[in-house]
Amino acid sequence: MSPPEENVWVEMASMRYPRSYFGTVVADGKIYAIGGLVSRGVGLVTGAVERYDPQTNTWMTLPSLPTPRYGGVAVCSMGKIYYIGGSTTSSGLYGVNEVYDPATNQWTRKASIPTPRNGASACVVDGYIYVMGGYVNSELCEVYDPIEDTWSVYEGPWPEVPSDGVVFDGREYVCDGVGLRIHDLVLDSWMDGANVPLGLHGRGVVEVDGLLYVLGGCTETYSFPNALPYELREYFSKNFEMFRHIATTEQVHFQRVFMYTPFGYGRIAPEISVLSLEEGGRYDLETVTLEYSLNHPVVWMGYCLDGQANVTVGGNVSLSGLSSGRHSVRVFAEDKYGNTGASETITFTVANAPRSLVFIGVVTATTVVVAAVVVCLGLSFLRKNRHKKST
Question: pTM to 2 decimals?
């Protein structure tokens, strides 16, 4: 299969509901769109929830958010989707925390965030959800424990969260209006990508399998009363910021979805990191776990142990029956475009002999001890008999 054309936008299946400032999150390779703004005035917010499958390019409607709102943060922790905070114009800021479980297809209310906020940033570290900044209190970070269902104020340094864009594969992608700016985090340099087809705000921007998706958004147009003389309306338009308070605002929401193929996509070999074994490590068991990470999806994985033939695997695996001494292992992978990658060769030592050898050693040692006892008893018996005969 040939890699797709890079630095291009392609329109995908549209969402079922036009919206902006909604929650977007990726879980299990699928994109969730939660809540958001739909219009001005009556019916300002929506609780609509839908899920997009990039593999089939289809959307599915899910149970609605129990508390409709916009501007909240959406994150995935331990396989569940959390939508926290947000607001409506009628009731101000919410601290509501609601969780969707894909296994049960249901929403549940959890402990509210102590500081209600809109437009915050969030991330998940070791299952804990960190919510930072936003309107009302931009200096406060609060952390949520999904297991205990409790919140606490986090006093340490904030986790790193991109403020303007989405980060993956060593780059940050920032969609600003119609422009796409790409920041190479390794070289600390910027470059321009292809313009986004629609220059909107309030869009959802996420990454799935190394591809960038832009969803929904809205645009606003301003006009002055037609009853005003044409010359006066022209003057107001040229000095818009001064007179915008008397302008009529029209907001149009979109449901269109676009996918961006980054520079080099489909031409970069898989990067593999071994996580469970350390170079020069020493292990006391004849079975060790081989765990590793990949930077993008692959169609084949395998490992080579001690220079033997490659063994195909579907994920993390246990290396069993290892003899005492030094061993080496290397992991390989190939993606759907034929790019192959390999991890570093990890050399490690198994300290103990296999159980069978240990058992044989114990049996042998026991036999020697028993034989020694028998010999001692025999010598003692002979001495006693000789003593009786001499008397």
Answer: 0.77
